Amino acid sequence: MSDIIRDDTFYYCEGKNLRGVECKAILSPSTLTITEAENGNKQRTVNVDDIIGCLCMRNQDSHGNQLSHGQDAISMFLCVYYYSLSTNFKKSPYRKRETALLRCQKYSTFVENCDYVAKWQSSLYSLIHSNEIYPHMLSTDPITNDSQRLLIFVNPNSGPGVALKTFNTRIRSFLGEANISYDLIVTSHVGHCQKVVQDFRDLAKYTGLVAVSGDGLLYEIYNGLFAREDWDNICKIPVGVIPQGSGNGLARSLAHFKNEPYLYDPLVVSVLNVVKLKSCEMDLCLVNTTKFPKLISFLSVGWGLMADIDIESERLRMIGEARFTVGALARIMRLRTYKATVSYLPAVGGIPDEVMSPLPPLDEPLPDQKWISLTGEFICVYSSMVPFIGTDLFFAPEALIDDGVIWLMIVQAPASKLQVTQLLLSMEKGNHIQLPWVTFVPVTAFRLVPDVSVGPQSYLVIDGEKLDTQAMQAQIMPRKGRVFMR
Description:
The protein is α+β, with helices and mostly antiparallel strands. The protein has helices spanning 110-128, 163-177, 192-199, 215-226, 231-234, 249-257, 266-275, 305-312, 322-333, 417-426, and strands at residues 6-14, 17-27, 31-36, 43-47, 51-57, 76-87, 93-104, 149-154, 181-186, 208-213, 239-243, 279-289, 295-297, 300-304, 338-346, 372-384, 388-390, 393-394, 406-412, 439-450, 460-462, 465-467, 472-484.
């Protein structure tokens, strides 16, 4: 077959049988196929896309146990780590960790067998990371497996407060299996991550940045990048997310794009996105407010009901994402409306140009007649650039990672408590966009000017981060960022 990269005879080791059964191993661009010579030519096929790494081992099994004294001392082992798509007893899909241990005794000396297995390892890694793109790196030197290094941020207070423990007990083993080096920073206060990203002199040496947290640490990463003088280049550094917070909208959306079984174990499918080191372009959003002239959003901007639920349930973060359900019940019982003017520029056609005309300052009128403006009382104004704004909040069913669109939802008053309850419940399946009293439109920019002279005031929430009520506007920045996604 013309697409065969390597093929040879090995001994497939399983269980305690470390002598193994003779087999034929064939490596192609998409699969590693292992066919046993015995047992009726039993065959195992491993998808390359499911492989995260492989290690060369001497006289030990896949768990690091030494072989007995009487076993072959010249053999070399190749251990392949992969996460196959399987189903449990309820037929629910999930990613299952598996290993394939192959013993090589092709040559008469250990050195020759070692060199040969190393060639297989090199071929496997060239396939595992075959589509890597690092446009942010200034060096012209080729990127090798040894030179790849991640900068990982862990927020120990995120969500239930177990992120650091999870990193030490689970995530580190993934990185080890994938043979990925990293530097670790445990954040100590709000803004710590943003300050590090903004001031780190040699940030371009890293192959990517990773947040082990909820969406808050990602917000700090993107705004730290935006504050740098080399923003135009460094914004293309891949950013990864491993969900450990009470809000994990981006992690859930990335799994949705690839139809991955996120709900069974969010950590596994998210870590796989990172350790495969493949990335794609993603849209960002430039936000201007009265007090903060330039902010970057990667997820959502909200005001009104859903912003209130997000911020007022913050004190319940120790119960995880259930805090949003409790907060929603409390807010529906004391439903509020807010006065404002909302203007938006509908998206027409395909993806906008890379360079969009900047919006005028907030104290100046909007530029042309294409804008649509609504003035009155509102229950909720919310926008997102990705499908999910939380694990169970399917906000924008048609959203893509790089469609050049902000998906804007406007709920005007009056609306009953029953209608608002229906709105929030239907968001789990994305059916809220069909409600006749909900305006849901794709836009490239929008402006919100709250009337602060009368009535109650809501929060302004950007990627889950709270700002006081103030005028704001947002416009899409098509494909300006990059995110790890396998």
